[in-house]
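Q: Could you write out the predicted structure for this multi-component system? I'm mainly interested in how the pieces pack against one another.
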Amino acid sequence: MTARLPANILIGAVLVALVAGAAVLSAVWTPYPYAAIDVANKFAAPSATHWLGTDQLGRDLVSQLMAAAGNSMTVAVVAVGIGCSVGTVLGLLAAARGGWVEEIIMRLSDLGFAFPALLFAIMLAAAFGPSLSMVVIAIAFINIPTFARVSRAAANQIWRREYVFAARAAGMSSFAISRDHVLPNIAAPVIVQATIEFAVAILVEAALSYLGLGAQPPAPSWGRMLAEAQTLMYLAPQLAIWPGMCIVTAVLGFGLLGDGLRDISDPRLARQRSA
Amino acid sequence: MSYFLARRIAGFLLTLFVVSIVVFAVMNVLPGDPALTILGLDSTEEARAALRGRLGLDEPVVQRYLAWIGGALHGDLGQSYSFDVPVSGLIAERLPLTLSLAVSGMALTIGLALTMGLTAAARHGRAGDWAIMLLSQLGIAVPAFWLSMLLVLLFAVKLRWLPPGGFPGWGDPVAAARSLVLPTVALALVQSAVLARVTRSAALEVMRQDFVRTARATGFAPRHVLWRHVLPNALVPIVTIVGLQFAGLVTGTIVIENVFYLPGLGRLLFQSIANRDLITVQALVMLFAAIVVTANFLVDIAYVVIDPRLRAQRA
Amino acid sequence: MIALRGLCVRTGTGHLAVRDVDLTIQAGQRLGVVGESGSGKTMLALSMMGMVPDGLQVEGQVLVDGHSIAAEDERAWRSHRARSVAMIFQEPMAALNPLVRVGDTIAEPLRRHLGLSRRDARARALNLLEETGIPQARRRLDQYPHELSGGQRQRVLIALALACDPQLLIADEPTTALDAQVALRITDLLVRLSQERRMGLLFISHDLAAVSRTTSDIMVMYGGDVVERGRTASVLSAPEHPYTRGLLAARPSLMTRSRRLPTIPGTVPQLNALAAGCRFAGRCARELPICASRRPPLSPTETGQAACHLLGAQA
Amino acid sequence: MSDPVLSVQAVTRRYGLPRRNLFAAAPVLTAVDNVSFDLAAGQTLGVVGESGSGKSTLARMVMGFERPDSGRILFQGQDIHRLATGDLQQARRRFQMVFQDPFGSLDPRRRVGWSIAEPLRAMGETDTDAQVAEALEQVGLRAGHARSFPHEFSGGQRQRIAIARAIITRPALLVADEAVSALDVSVQAQILNLLMDIQDDLGLAILFISHDLAVVSCVCDTLLVMQGGQVLESGEVSGILQDPGHDYTRTLLSAARLGVS
């Protein structure tokens, strides 16, 4: 590949690396323990000791934001990971088997559309009590039909390609064809979808935590930080800025990355470039 | 009645039925003792037993489901535990606010998105396209509740043009409308960013097709080609997303109503969860899901109106 | 009349997809352009419409009735496309807007370009459809493209092309996607229309049989160059250029009853791999040392003109 | 004549179309209607017809991708649609196919050698390099090409690769479905000649399917003209060309003829 990467991939990758780096780092180091209360030092302005200042309890903002990044990314990775792998396997199965297997899988995934992720998570939170693991379960569950659809649609196209017919003519089993031909060729749309769902997962986690249905105190979360900041909006508007910026950075990063990946994986666009 | 329509309606009703089972199952079967959830861990066994009796929890699950769904079909959604009034009354009181929020949000979304998406597509690859796409990418990344907070900071706290939250009731239409401006904008800006991108890529997809080349070869101006030939053909994917977005807007109101302290269904749902009022929560979740399913059903019908090919295939 | 003077189409990478073509099409003249993939025949046609894809650059002149149209004057090109030239394409399935009724499609240029009223445009559309010999023309007016067969759609596209009485009709592989029987009728129709209307016809095809029964003159292209031109019948029966000869020999014909065909070695080269001199150099069986570096000019032959150094060597 | 390699006996295939009305029966399309023919080793049978004539459905049934609704397809005396799955996979070694689209018939993400060896792997063979090299040379390419990816080749070369894959198991029957239709004329002749060379070398039977009567008549011994699922006429190529028994065949002839004499 001699073509240079499009700008959106580069910017997206940098933003994602920033957030992911902070998340990983927070597991081993933050400037202060994120929950360390120092009431004497509340609402501190940004300084050399507290880079972004402190909140109403004197907690270091940078430490909280980093730890929250860890939480947010963990939720996204685990939830989208589960949804993506289960969904893609179901999609591959539906495309390979066709007939009633496909019909059942697709009808069930239709059902997923009745529950937007937020609503589903709210329902689970109401029934089982709010917690971060409920958020993960809800997002994972809602992602399964999404990935089942995306991978089935892509896989069905691959199944109509002549090289798949050639493999069938050669006597390959449908499992071997799914493994050798279909999966590698649908990887691109699935990965693109995964980056988008990452962004959605981060937004949903933030919204639920904001509503008090996600991360519970003292677990740090951008959404919960914003909820706390809202009550202090007249007093300390700066507290409402930074967590929001973090969410935007993370979501924008994944969004740009997904967009760019879609651009370079779209064979039509690729052909236009080479022509 | 046409075969297609009959099948769609059957599918719609079936989906609603299955959704109601899922909602009922999650709220009643899985978590163990709803009385415990409602009353909390520090409740006495007698109080829980009394509540179970009142809620009919001693009866078999299937019977309870049938009672619930049967009541719902007659407009009886049960008695709210925390407000101690019929749930249907609570909903009827708050539905107009949520619906007007969702509908005005949708209208604003569609207007903004079509303008931005088509403009970007018409300027494909040029500066205008880039600017609009960057803006929309940013718009998608902004959480609606944070945008709401920023809007409140700017327009309510700093400029004092609009109220920061609360709802004065429908008695004063102007005040009511004013209090809905910021929530509507917060809802619509984010959603229109998504829809603008869909509109643009759908339009670009259509612009690659041969009949657009035919129209150009016939000597029509780009504007005419865009409105007459590109947009109608791009509508199918756009309408699909509009359906999904209406769902997003309706659930979005849950968050937004809480930011702005608006007494709608979302706020009611949130309060009911806080009060562990499972009866109300169950009714509201079912209602939200039903709205979403209905929106998707209407989208299916819209396809057929848009595209004569589907009309022929499915008529 | 429409003429090209020194026309070149340059790709983004600086290679010439069409190299230095001179061409005049008289009223009623039927010119066939023959070539394989990468011969530049479609680019040639698009440059006559001012519709060369973005990123490609047209050099040289396109003259309409003696007036040159500047490459960047989009308004002039639009009125040229509206009035003096029309084009039909390979895929009649894709070339019609699926959401617009056939009658409205044909009436559109009549109303916008000629200012006809709705009623007059419809009547005129019916006349045009009848002129193309489509069965049950009146019924077709209210049908959608998907309700027509491939051949019928191609007739609708021809009617649309004729709407504003063009001087020249460009047909780019109009029969390739059609079944043999239908293709025969379409080429007959094109010949008839060209004769009745004294309309120029530029018929682009890779199918020598189709070109031979449709056109009076022929132009053979290879790698962006015109390698041979002349009367269709004479060129096809006594080709001068080694490429034309090779092409005719390699073409399976009903007469060939041997199990092996003569072949042209190698493969149709990519644009960036073409020789600077004669583009056929490298595949030509009778190549001279000079061929790869010097481009042979079109020189007169017994049947027309050909661009080959062998002609000079013999003379 | 010896026993035919392929014997198609009164084969019919129908498709149910989407229902248009709740109360009416779904319409049925008969894609292949009572078609029969025999094909002997070393012979080439051409099937000519247009889109919708049923010729591709016929090819798919011969390849075992689709079941006929009635009739039998005997390959070397065995009814392939009655074989157990395992037996069918083994039998596939002996009948292979070449497809139309040289750009679609090779997996873009796999090296050419990998694709060519696929039929061998399907039979459980693991040591395939030598056979791949031999097949590549047989179709006029070099052994080293096995390590390249499909996009590095031209359309004609890809079709050679597709042929290499089809002949690597030394099949007795090759089904060529529009195998040269997507190629430029100057390349098409090379591929047709290659098919003839390979037939002479391996003695295989070829079922050659095309819409182009000129191409078919050039390479085939016998001919089947199909329209709307039915066989209009069949027989020796020279006989049909000289004396077509059907109007439709005459149309095909005049469409293929150069209007110059």
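A: Regarding packing and overall arrangement: Chain A has one domain: 8-19+52-274.
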